[in-house]
Design a protein that fits this description.
- The chain is of the alpha+beta class and about 120 residues long.
- The chain has one domain.
- Helices cover about 45% and strands about 20% of the residues.
- The chain contains three helices and four strands.
- A two-stranded antiparallel sheet has the order 1-2. A two-stranded antiparallel sheet has the order 3-4.
- A hairpin with a 5-residue loop joins strand 3 and strand 4.
- The longest helix has 20 residues.
- It is elongated, with a radius of gyration of 34 Å.
Amino acid sequence: MKKQREEQVEINNQFLEILRLASKGEALDQASKGLAQVMSGVSLTGKKGKLTIECIVSDEEPACSIAFRVKVGIPKAMTRKMMLYLTEDGGISRKDPDQEEMKPIVVEAEAETHERASAAS
């Protein structure tokens, strides 16, 4: 059992070493920078982000070629919400069709009070 564990560790270390050596460290640099970008986006938006390291292996008799592709999924901030309503004719409106229209109230008492106060002075 211990021998299997040692072999597994060696295999994992081989992959990390290959990633480090690929394109003179370019793949590892891209992954490190990408991770920082994703973490920054997550911190700003509170949403989940994603970093994918894709390993492309091709048969190149008598060996295999390996290339890496780093994909960065930075969460984007949303714009502010806006409430819109669908009208009966299929249009879009900012006005709620179910809300009763408020009618303006004319307040004349304020003018009378002002006149009385002026007359009393």
